[in-house]
Amino acid sequence: MTALAKNTPRTRVGLGQRFADPVAAATKIYSGAMVALNAAGDAIPAIPTGVVMRGVALEEADNGTGAAGDVTVPIERGPFLVANDGSLDRTHIGTNVYVVDDNTVGDAGTLVAGKCLDVLDAGVVVEIL
Q: Which residues pair with 62 in a beta bridge?
């Protein structure tokens, strides 16, 4: 492909916040789980060694006995309330927070879950982008 040399219409795909991703083989993702993509681009429950943070599962997706892609999971990006591992407080608002597991974020790690929007008694509001 080459750079544009003239005006070109661009197709908008939804709002860019909802996706249906293939689920990795032998994997179950619970509704409400933070979801990452592995190196093959398949959805997995978010773990610190995930390759790309994707969003939150809108439904359960059980591919426990299937091959990669036999099942898809609907994913949504945006602000979500998730659990705090205890390391985050209001001084973290505006900073990156990191995946601890598919339900929890903390102040350090390898996979960025998103930006901390707020820290509440109930958990952390994370903008997953």
A: 28
* Mean pLDDT score across all residues of the chain: 95
Predicted confidence (pLDDT) at residue 74 exceeds the cutoff of 80: yes
Partner residues linked to 78 by β-bridges: 128
The alpha carbons of the chain give a radius of gyration, in whole angstroms, of 16
DSSP-assigned letter for residue 51 = S
pTM of the model: 0.89
- Using DSSP, state whether 60 is helix, strand or coil: coil
Task: Return the structure tokens found at 35.
Answer: 């979801």
DSSP result, 71-127: SEEEEE-EEEEEEE-S---GGGTTSEEEEEETTEEES--SSEEEEEEEEETTEEEEE
Q: Identify the bridge partners of residue 114 per DSSP, sorted by sequence position.
A: 97
58-70 per-position pLDDT tens digit: 999 999 999 999 9
Burial of 91 (0-12, 13-18, 19+ CB in 10 A): exposed
* Mean pLDDT along residues 112-118: 98
3-state secondary structure of 57: strand
